[in-house]
């Protein structure tokens, strides 16, 4: 059973690649024996904004949930800066899908944002002035200062998303995972999120984003992974985000997009081909 | 004054108050986690535990029976969690399954015990619908002890329970052990339920988990206030129900307490500000009226823009512009009341203030009523 302890083998093997802050190898996840992710590798260098794109059911959310330890993989290893996730929680932040919680929960914006400090606080200890200040600071960054006392049930979708983003910001992490932060948000929110992403990158942080809009991949991200149960391609956007790879990821569906009068996208995809 | 001087009544009221407080407070978390049915499953699952505890010990001491109830309720709860985790059966089916299997087993055992020759088993069936009048001071002491403990644990892990109830997955990524918190919170719920079983009974105890919490949710948007209010509603329902049922002999306490709780829920559903039905109805009406009045204001403004001089317009024109929808007269009267429009020679025109208001509204942006105004007025150029 030489593969019984791959972690120790890999940590010695991967020394030349230690600049990858996230390394996922041979990751396989199955629900009821049906593979959702199959033998997926993912290496992310520090300071990149990376998009994970792929069709519905490609396993994008599953991939980041597995990296975060929310789903147990059948096989494979996940290392965050060379160590398993449990030992690196303090440097990882997470923005779940906005629809994953009940926004009718009786609490306000400030309270939700302060939840990002709960790990640092530890058990039982309650948030105090320091946590409040951090939360207000983060709310300002996402343009939601005046909403601190607002009931979360009264927020629009875009505002909800920005609250989740603020909660991740107070985690003060080095690596962020965001699950469809642009899903159904207004233009203001989209701009706010993009600005924050760029700020994070400027600060040397690494951000991995599950993304749906192929048209904005070039504009927003510098690294991309094309996923459809298997990893189709992964690397710098200029090299990897090619029509050929997109076709392999989306099957016939990408052609449908092009025929649908959406020529801007098709040309953009073509234009990105190297050479 | 009986409440102060009558020993039995005082004991009963105190006991019912404690059970209401604890089940209301902890029920809030069950409600927010959409696990209200869990309370139902736990309380029904407790019945075989009660009977088995009696069969094994031949004792009817509260501590013994409550312990039996707690163990059976806890096992039932763990079974539900396991069935959901390890099989493809969904939570609602798992709850129904465990509830009916355990409750059926309990009824079977109860029938069996009732055929025992001696009379020691008499009164076990009060656990079905509850009999607060039978509460002893020692029972109440035990309820207070267990309930107090549960509330202290709840207060201690407040932050964790809040996070866990709102966003379980995020909590898990932070490293909080969600399975352990799940079991801890449900154990507290089991505690809240078993201390109420003697007074309310297994059949209706779940109402004490759901009703006070649901009522409290109507009045507030703050978790701490909701939990406190639910506790208070629980106390009111418990005490009033217990006192009423004690006064009328032969009345099971459970149904009376649940009736009290239902009145509180009904009252809250109807009257609570913001979330209450009546409030909503009034708000909708007010919105509709505002819309009508603004449409009328803009209509008059559009008409005024077609003439050099201010001229009054016949109400029939306004009716036509309103596309036959009602409320024209009412809206005009409202405009007049606000001093935005005046009636001149049987026609209507805007005042100075009305003009300014109309400009302000049209500056504000596009209104639905714009469409009506534009489509209803023929273009003079054409």
What does this structure look like?
The complex is a heterodimer of chains A (275) and B (382). Helix content of chain A is 36%, strand content 23%. With 275 residues, chain A is α/β, with parallel strands linked by helices. In chain A, the strands form two sheets. In chain A, strands 5-6-7-3-8-9 form a six-stranded mixed β-sheet, with helices on both faces. Chain A has a three-stranded antiparallel β-sheet with strand order 2-1-4, covered by helices on one side. In chain A, helix 5 packs across helix 6 and helix 6 runs parallel beside helix 7. Chain A is globular, with a radius of gyration of 19 Å. Chain A starts with 5 loop residues before the first helix and ends with a helix. The N terminus and C terminus of chain A are likely disordered. Chain B is mainly α and 382 residues long. Chain B is built from 18 helices and three strands. A three-stranded antiparallel β-sheet of chain B has the order 1-3-2. The C terminus of chain B is likely disordered. At the A-B interface, helix 4 of A face helix 8, helix 9 and helix 12 of B.
């Amino acid at each position: 059973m030489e593969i019984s302890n791959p972690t120790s083998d890999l940590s010695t093997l991967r020394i030349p690649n230690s600049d990858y802050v996230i390394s996922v190898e041979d990751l396989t996840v199955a629900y009821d024996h049906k593979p959702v992710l199959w033998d997926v590798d993912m290496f992310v260098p520090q300071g990149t904004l990376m998009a994970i794109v792929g069709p519905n059911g490609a396993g994008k959310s599953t991939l980041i949930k597995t990296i975060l330890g929310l789903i147990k993989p059948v096989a494979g290893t996940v290392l965050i800066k060379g160590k398993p996730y449990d030992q690196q929680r303090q440097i990882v932040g997470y923005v779940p899908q906005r629809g994953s919680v009940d926004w009718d929960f009786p609490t306000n914006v400030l309270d939700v944002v302060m939840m990002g400090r709960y790990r640092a606080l530890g058990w039982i200890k309650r948030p105090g002035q320091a946590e409040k200040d951090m939360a207000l600071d983060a709310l300002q960054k996402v343009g939601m200062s005046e909403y601190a006392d607002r009931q979360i049930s009264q927020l629009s979708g875009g505002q909800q998303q920005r609250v989740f983003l603020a909660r991740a910001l107070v985690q003060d992490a080095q690596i962020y995972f965001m699950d469809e932060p642009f899903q159904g948000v207004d233009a203001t929110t989209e701009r706010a999120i993009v600005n924050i992403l760029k700020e994070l990158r400027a600060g040397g942080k690494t951000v991995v984003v599950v993304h749906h809009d192929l048209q904005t991949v070039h504009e927003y991200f510098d690294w991309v992974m094309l996923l459809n149960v298997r990893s189709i391609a992964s690397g710098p956007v200029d090299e990897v985000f090619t029509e050929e790879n997109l076709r392999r990821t989306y099957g016939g569906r990408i052609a449908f997009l092009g025929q649908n009068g959406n020529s801007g996208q098709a040309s953009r995809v073509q234009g990105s081909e190297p050479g | 004054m009986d409440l102060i001087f009558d020993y039995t009544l005082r004991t009963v009221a105190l006991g019912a108050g404690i059970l209401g407080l604890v089940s209301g407070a902890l029920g809030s978390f069950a409600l927010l986690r959409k696990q209200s049915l869990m309370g139902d499953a736990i309380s029904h699952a407790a019945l075989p535990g009660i009977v088995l505890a009696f069969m094994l010990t031949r004792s009817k001491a509260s501590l013994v029976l409550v312990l039996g109830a707690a163990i059976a309720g806890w096992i039932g709860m763990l079974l539900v969690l396991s069935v959901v985790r390890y099989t493809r059966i969904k939570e609602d089916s798992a709850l129904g399954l465990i509830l009916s299997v355990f409750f059926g087993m309990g009824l079977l055992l109860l029938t069996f015990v009732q055929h025992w020759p001696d009379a020691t088993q008499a009164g076990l069936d009060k656990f079905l619908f509850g009999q607060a009048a039978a509460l002893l001071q020692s029972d109440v002491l035990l309820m207070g002890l267990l309930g107090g403990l549960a509330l202290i644990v709840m207060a201690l892990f407040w932050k964790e329970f809040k996070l866990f109830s709102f966003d379980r997955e995020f909590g898990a990524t932070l490293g909080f052990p969600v399975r352990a918190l799940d079991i801890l919170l449900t154990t507290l719920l089991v505690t809240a339920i078993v201390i109420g079983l003697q007074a309310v009974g297994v059949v209706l105890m779940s109402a004490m988990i759901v009703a006070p919490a649901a009522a409290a949710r109507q009045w507030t948007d703050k978790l701490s206030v909701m939990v406190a209010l639910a506790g208070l509603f629980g106390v009111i329902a418990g005490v009033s129900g217990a006192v009423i049922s004690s006064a009328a002999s032969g009345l099971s306490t459970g149904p009376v307490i649940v009736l009290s709780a239902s009145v509180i829920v009904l009252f809250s559903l109807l009257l609570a500000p913001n979330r209450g039905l009546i409030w909503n109805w009034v708000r909708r009406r007010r919105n509709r009226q505002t819309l009508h009045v603004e449409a009328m204001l803009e209509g008059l403004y559009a008409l005024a823009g077609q003439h050099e001089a201010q001229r009054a317009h016949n109400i029939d024109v306004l009716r036509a512009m309103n596309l036959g929808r009602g409320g024209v007269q009412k809206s005009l009267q409202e405009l007049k009341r606000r001093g935005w429009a005046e009636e001149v020679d049987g026609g209507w025109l805007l005042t100075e203030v009305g003009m300014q208001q109309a400009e302000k509204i049209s500056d504000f942006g596009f209104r639905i009523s714009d469409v009506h105004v534009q489509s209803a007025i023929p273009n003079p150029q054409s």
